[in-house]
Amino acid sequence: MKRNALLDYNRLPMEKAYNVRELGGYAARGGSVTKYHQFLRTDNLTDITEEDKNFLLAYGLQAVIDLRGREETLIYPNPFREHPMVSYINLPFITDSVLDMRAVKEKEFQPAEFYINLVEYKEMVARLFRFILEHVDGCVLFHCQAGKDRTGILAMLLLGICDVSKEDIIANYQVSHTYLKDHVELRIHDGLEELEYSRPEWIEAAYEHIMTEYGSFRKYLLAAGLKKKEIRRIRRKLVL
What we know:
Strand order of the largest sheet: 1-2-5-3-4
Largest sheet: 5 strands, mixed
Helix content: 40-55%
Shape: globular
């Protein structure tokens, strides 16, 4: 397929990354629709080709948020880290006990609990959103290693403040396994293959935690330290 930066996609046609997706095109409250060319959620970009890089730049890429831990960024460097046209930041969206689900060894590990712990890392959530506020006029790409777990929580928060339905938020998360299962080596240990999936109940637990503990995504972000006007600016970036 010929790639044209003027076209809108859900999953972008990349050669060496497999879970590169738009947050545009989702129905939001009041009949609005989330905008294209504002946010991209992706897996690791280390191996992308020059054509892939140029495609993203032509698509409007201006900022990259790397959600991985320092060791991951050293082993799998982001190709935009020192790019003159892109603002790159590494903000590790991790917990004290878990850096990346691919490194988990305990068979009793519960992904839903990990997601809730990420939600409760409100200090980092505030830093993530304030970096976004510095780049409200350009396309912001955010990623972890597989583009499923840490990336999935940030995507949920962004869609959530735009009042995208719970069903669409879950669907946005759930499709990751479909795109990744034939391409990404997740280094899952014997007996832990379940962690390769993107089970709907895992992200639903994080969604319900926000609703139960805070009442709404807006109130959650206020509790994280963001101001009302900051939340409105981010929402306007994504909603028509």
